[in-house]
Amino acid sequence: MSVFQKIEELINENRLEEALLLLNNEITIEKNNDQLYFQRGKINWRLGNKSQAITDYEHAVDINPLSPARIALDNARDVISFFNPDLYNP
Predict the structure, then answer these.
(1) Is 54 helix (H, G, I), strand (E, B) or coil?
(2) What is the pTM of this model?
(3) Domain spanning 3-84: which superfamily?
């Protein structure tokens, strides 16, 4: 079973923290694999680590400008910019 298959299996079983640990280990080995950063970004987003997710998406796009992380990055930025903190301050 490949690392990507194991990560997918963990995600499907909603074992996100374990998948994140496996991704972190793989990234130390394959620092220039945009798919690993993209996948880690998706997990971080699901875990509520929005800023880390955006950082991962940006890193994936830096490695590969055609990465699907480009769309995720644009969407994440749209979501973040949707919330206007001034509305919460009377």
Answers:
(1) helix
(2) 0.85
(3) Tetratricopeptide repeat domain (1.25.40.10)
